[in-house]
Specification:
This protein has 128 residues and is mostly helical. It has helices at 3-15, 19-43, 46-65, 73-94, 97-119.
Length: 128
């Protein structure tokens, strides 16, 4: 397979996504990496666990940095992202499976909330 062609396809694909689709892509990756961290922890693969947790933290930090602060909800989202970052640090340092399993559904819930908002066109009642 031609790697350059695949890379061009990926770039074009991401380049044509709406901001909502990009947000969902980030959240999907966040949930995936948290799941990978959980699996790696179960297997005792600590380097993979730490890499997955680092990627989770990077994604959450990016989400926080790119918030549009002119909207009131941004403050609440930023506080949520701060909480996620704090918990991820605790989970990574302590290799704490129990806390990771408490955090993963929260990440999935956030993704699902944004997915529902995107599906509804960002308007209450789903009126696009």
């Amino acid at each position: 397979m031609d790697r350059r062609g695949y890379q061009q396809y990926k770039q074009q694909s991401v380049g044509t996504m709406t901001p909502g689709e990009l947000l969902l892509l980030l959240y999907d990756e966040l949930v995936k990496r948290a799941t990978m961290a959980s699996i790696a922890l179960d297997k005792g693969e600590f380097a993979s666990f730490e890499a997955a947790m680092d990627r989770c933290s990077d994604i959450v930090n990016y989400l926080d940095e790119t918030l549009d602060r002119k909207y009131p909800i941004s403050r609440d989202l930023s506080r949520m992202y701060d909480y996620f970052t704090y918990q991820m640090g605790r989970i990574k340092i302590g290799r704490n499976k129990q806390e990771l399993e408490r955090l993963r559904p929260m990440l999935a819930d956030m993704r699902d909330a944004f997915r529902a908002a995107e599906k509804n066109g960002g308007r209450p009642g789903g009126q696009a």
